[in-house]
Amino acid sequence: MPDLLLELFSEEIPARMQRRAAEDLKKLVTDALVERGFLYEGAQAFSTPRRLALTIMGLPVKGQDVREERKGPRVGSPDAAIQGFLKGAGLTSLDQAKIESDPKKGEFYIAVIEKPGRATTDVLAEILPQIIKTFPWPKSMRWGVASREAGSLRWVRPLQSILCTFGPETEDPEVVRFEVDETVSGDVTYGHRFLASGPIRVRRFDDYVPALERAKVVLDADRRKDMILHDAKDLAFAQGLELVEDEGLLEEVAGLVEWPVVLMGSFDDAFLDIPPEVIRTTIRANQKCFVLRDPKTGKLANRFLLTSNLIATDGGKTIIGGNERVVRARLSDAKFFWETDQKVKLEDRLEKLKAIVFHEKLGTQYERVERIAALSKELAPIVGADVTLAERAARLAKADLVTEMVGEFPELQGLMGRYYATLQGENPSVAAAIEEHYKPLGPSDRVPTDPVSVSVALADKIDTLVGFWAIDEKPTGSKDPYALRRAALGVIRLVLENNIKLPLISLLAKPFARDAKDVLFEEFLQIKKLVEAIEDSAFASLVSHPALPDIEAIFRQRQLGNAESLARIMYMRALDLLSFFADRLKVYLRDQGARHDLIDAVFSLEGQDDLLMIVRRVEALGRFLDTEDGANLLAGYRRAANILRIEEKKDGRAYNEAPDLQIVNDQGQIEEKALAVVLHGAKEEARKAVESEDFEGAMRALSRLRQPVDAFFDKVTVNAEDAGLRANRLRLLNSIREATRTVADFSRIEG
Predict the structure, then answer these.
(1) Does the keyword field hold Cytoplasm (predicted)?
(2) Can you give the pLDDT at residue 567?
(3) DSSP of 164-186, one letter per residue?
(4) Which of 329, 318, 324 is nearest to 304 (CA)?
(5) Which of 134, 212, 387, 609 makes a 20 to 30 Å CA pair with 201?
(6) C-alpha R_g of the chain
(7) Angle, alpha carbons 433-438-443 (nearest 5°)
């Protein structure tokens, strides 16, 4: 079957856009073909700094023929209906239609419409110009005379040529003819900007790739990455050094060259006095170069590796020399920043934070530091940190934002603060916390373990979340401009990986109240108690609980004014933030392999705001259900719940009362009596175990129900003729349901 080759050749495409653009091109073209009924065997997309390329294998020569029968009006219908039918079906007279009989409705005209499949080249010529004109570049431009016209082509950089061929392997393919703003498609491409000259005529993908190779262009970005990495390691090894690998930089550099040539440069040993992270950041950010280290000491060497896009006639000496001059100048700046910053202590920089606005509605960085310090003091005893050290670390945590080094390289925030804090003699835990309070920055980033670092990291993230929730700036859909999902995940990982008990309702109440006004805190806590008295809400659905509107009534009854109304709003937002934490925790647990139904079963219980306890309960529940006792108890629970649901619906009432033990003793069967006794003991034992956070013990208590529940359903008829006995047995079934709710909502468990 024929194959398609498409190349869009332009000026240099920014490296960060190339891979996504190649995938977008593949998806847009293949989706458009499939939508029109053109299936294919495979597709591959490629990118270099100056081209996007796509090959689609196994396309048909033309689309499938279509045969459609369209039902028309009844025979003898008015002429207007007949003419409308003929026009819609593309017929010139009724002689071209056939007549079919319907036993109930009579005879009808039927138009048989046959459409031959369109040639693939025609379809491609139709869809490709539109795809090119509407291509989703993050940034694009117009150029030349055509740019004056509205609707002219926009491309990431000026588009210079389009190559598009289609045909089978055994024949010369044909050019798919189309035009995009005076750029006409053809079968010509171009090689390396400096190492090749003249156009290259191409037939199909199989000769396109080797033709580019001869013209010093490596089409596959992954192959360019492999070449750079292999040559870099070889050059480093030859000097007794090793490469400091950097996947992000490797990806970027592979998008800057079509024919990679790796060269080694050097810089003055004196610059090695600068922190290694600064050297690496300077060389990486400014020159897109890799750094090397001595494998014996683990320290950076005064060497770097650059990737050229040329095979230089002088072996690269001129290129190396030019890069060395730039690196020397950049490192000189970094050395100056490093030495200048050390002249001013971190605490002496705090006043400058008053000039940095964190957010127009949340104040300056100085005000934020005050909030983080206050919260760190409260968190310190909970996480086992020294209160004085936690507050000190929080106050210095943002001071490096006004240093020369961080001003030049913002990505070094925190790290430079640690260096400067160490140099000025701060406690090691304080210095570490200044760097680590930003962590974890993502799902693969490490989590701090030093208690001081943990307290400041939690305070920083909670302040961010509370602040943006307080001003109603929450993530919406895929948009999360303030990285609030990452902050919530950071809190979750800090708590879970450090085994910290952290009741969120109590923790979040004070920051939200403080935002409302400090003087309202006592009033706020009273409101909180009132709300808790009227609500029986699951952690995962706090915000939507029907009891929450009653808060309005509380405020009316108490005749509270505007300030207190603000406190009420803050509390509502705190509940909303708790719901957000619930969603993030669910995502985190699912990523860790936990069953989603077990997570829901635990979340649906009221008062679940301790992240660590939630996770331990989910884990214990999973282990219990994997046992024979757990599986059988779940089956017994479902049988009880099903009977209750049916009978409660039939009777129009709930059987929520405790069973009458006198009726059980007087009229009950042996199995019924045994279940009542075990239920009371197991429920109480499970409740106490949960209160003491012994979830395994709670599961063991529930496991005692397995045998008496099985025996009850085996020997006892629930729907007894005696109405009182029947009602009491239904209440006994409800007790089974209530006993299991001490650990989880079994109705949410699947399987």
Answers:
(1) yes
(2) 52
(3) EEEE-TTSPPEE---EETTEEEE
(4) 324
(5) 134
(6) 36
(7) 125
166 shares its domain with 299 = no
Within 8 A by CB and 6+ apart from 559, the residues are none
Distance CA 425, CA 453 (A): 17
Strands in 135-260 per DSSP E: 159-167, 174-175, 179-180, 183-186, 188-190, 199-201, 242-243
Q: Residue 538 has what pLDDT?
A: 30
- The confidence score (pLDDT) of residue 682 equals 87
What are the pLDDT digits (tens) for 679-733?
A: 888 888 888 988 888 888 888 888 888 888 888 888 888 888 888 888 888 888 8
Residue 489 CA to residue 587 CA, distance in Å, equals 9
Q: Residue 509: which H helix or E strand, with range?
A: helix 504-516
> Is the Cβ–Cβ distance between 636 and 732 less than 8 Å?
no
**How many CB atoms within 10 Å of residue 341?**
21
Q: Please tell me whether residue 380 adopts helix, strand or coil conformation.
A: helix
Unique residue bearing structure tokens 């349901």: 737
CB atoms within 10 A of CB 51: 23
Residue 159 lies in a domain: yes
Separation CA 621–CA 376 (nearest Å): 34
Q: Tokens 């480093």 map to which residue?
A: 236
At 434 the pLDDT is 97
What contacts 101, CB < 8 A, 6 or more positions away?
107, 108
Domain count, the chain: 5
CATH number, residue 133: 3.30.70
In angstroms, the Cα distances linking 594 to 80, 491, 590, 597, 604 are 66, 19, 5, 9, 16
The residue ranges of the chain whose pLDDT is under 70 are 66, 505-506, 509-573, 606-607, 751
The one-letter code for the residue type at 132 is: I
Q: Can you give the residue range of the structural domain that contains 77?
A: 66-115
Q: DSSP secondary-structure letter at 606?
A: B
pTM value?
A: 0.77
pLDDT score, position 506: 64
